């Protein structure tokens, strides 16, 4: 874990490799002396200045734009200095080294030690500072990473929405409603002379129901957002020669896996991430499942089962031209038994009947019939995969969420359900009700990274006249 610290930090902010422009970024307190040493003069706040970046001998390493964002009006909330130079790996390394050297000069006993120990930043440290200094909350900090990592347009757009605070605002809205409800309950607890009817009159149950509905709506969007970010893992399994590699290629629209009429061609796992309406599906083609005396094939089969064990969904592929052969059907039944015994109950297994083009008999009901060769039925399979992934398009636009958020929201829902049970009891145990609401708020606060339970008291005191 990244420890909290306030040392000045420096890093190359741009991607490694060649680029038109590259940026070295420094964050810390009181960067003035460092700026003097590097740029030879003070910089106007938030204004790009074209100047030479000086080495120790006063010679220019490069010419570029220098920018000073004085604290607190910067990305991190500290003083930030940016050197925007030419984007070569060596130039940027030289500038980085020069920053460290200049900081050491500023710190040297001969001069006044005004900038303590500039060091190279840990990954995520600039964003961590932005969070610690209250510039962004935890969900927004995560959105920065997600935006950078986004592999689809939909993921990038929804991460952008989270970064701008759309998700955090929803969470805050939930929190405000929850705080209001807690306030009612705690007041009833603190002032026993207040009738229990007080809760009823204030429609605590109605408020709770409204909160639960609001939470459910946020939950749906967060789950969709998490799906966009994380996708699901789909494993294609089946007997040799069923057409698993052909199916992967058809889904991916590229010749990734080797297709041949020789049964037992695929040995190693071939994985590819495909997108269906922006949802990433990590599809793995595996070795055909059968008993084999070939050592390499045995390893392949073991790997196939390994993949299946970690699947979110399994496509169980059958060769429709052979399903009527008793031995073939028996082997499929055997595979199905093993699948059922190994997979968790919530991992769907979809029957896919391949080689429809060459088959004389129709596919059994359920599942999807297709031809990996002609592409017939592939679109229907893609739609089924989206359903299996649980994708629902949400009209208002998504925010990118993470499994962590989805999990926290689910815990909030559980505590609210418990609270509802207490509230609905004939003689509500108010202390237990209050506790469930408190736990619900803690779970909610985990999302944005705030834990101030004192702010609840603040709200209570500000809204109730205690002296009365
Ligand atoms: N050159 C450059 N581009 C960049 C960044 C950067 O650090 N440097 N960013 C880094 O990730 C992102 C932009 N993030 C930023 C966030 C806040 C402030 C900032 O100056 N905030 C002040 C003033 C706000 C205002 O005027 O509205 C503040 O919060 O007080 C700057 C960049 C993307 N582009
Ligand atoms: N007619 C027809 N042939 C197909 C279809 N899909 C695959 N094949 C053929 O079936 C044979 C096996 O295909 P693969 O995709 O290599 O099968 P696999 O399941 O990956 O095979 P293993 O690697 O042995 O497990 C090849 O000759 C393919 O051309 C299809 O939809 N129709």
Describe this structure in words.
With 468 residues, the chain is an alpha/beta fold. Helices cover 47% and strands 16% of the residues. It is built from 15 helices and twelve strands. The chain has helices at residues 32-39, 89-107, 125-132, 138-149, 153-163, 166-190, 197-201, 204-230, 244-252, 295-309, 326-342, 378-389, 403-424, 430-448, 454-463; strands at 9-12, 19-28, 49-54, 60-69, 79-87, 119-120, 232-238, 270-276, 279-285, 313-319, 349-354, 368-369. The strands form two sheets. It has a six-stranded mixed sheet with strand order 3-4-5-2-1-6, covered by helices on one side. The protein has a six-stranded mixed sheet with strand order 8-9-7-10-11-12, sandwiched between helices. Helix 4 (138-149) runs antiparallel to helix 5 and helix 6 (166-190) packs across helix 15. The longest helix is centred in the middle third of the chain and has 27 residues, at 204-230. The two termini are 49 Å apart. The structure holds ligand FFO and guanosine-5'-triphosphate.
C-alpha Rg (nearest Å): 30 Å
Percent of residues in beta strands? 15-25%
Low-confidence stretches: 452-468
The shape is flat
Side-by-side strand order of the widest sheet = 3-4-5-2-1-6
Q: Structural class of the helix and strand makeup? A: alpha/beta
Which hetero compounds are present in the coordinates?
ligand FFO, guanosine-5'-triphosphate
The share of residues in helices is 40-55%
Average pLDDT level: 88
Largest sheet: 6 strands, mixed
CATH fold group of the largest domain: Rossmann fold
* CATH superfamily (homologous) name of the largest domain: P-loop containing nucleotide triphosphate hydrolases
CATH architecture of the largest domain: 3-Layer(aba) Sandwich
Assembly context of the chains:
single chain
Number of strands: 12
CATH class of the largest domain: Alpha Beta
Topology as H/E string?
A: EEHEEEHEHHHHHHEHEEHEHEEHHHH
N-C termini distance: 49 Å
What's the tally of helices?
A: 15
Number of domains: 3
